[in-house]
Amino acid sequence: MAPDFIPPTLWPPNSPVDYAVWGIMQERVYKKNIKDVDELCQRTVEEWEQLGQHVIDNVIRQWRKRLQGCVDADGGQFEHSL
User: How far is CA 30 from CA 11, 14, 17, 42, in A?
Assistant: First the structure.
């Protein structure tokens, strides 16, 4: 799910968008204890299907701001300044 201005072949594997979406997914998937890998897979798919497009759109809207924060911090810690 890369933005239109970045071709999928150039999308960084550990992008801010991936981290943000996975953080939301983790919160939802691990709301309750998981008994085994099958349940983990099932919950992950279910939560992904329920994840609204607005959530992903909001994460993408914040992407440039996060990139600029990273540049301003010379690649260092920058989340505190956002």
Answer: 27, 21, 20, 12
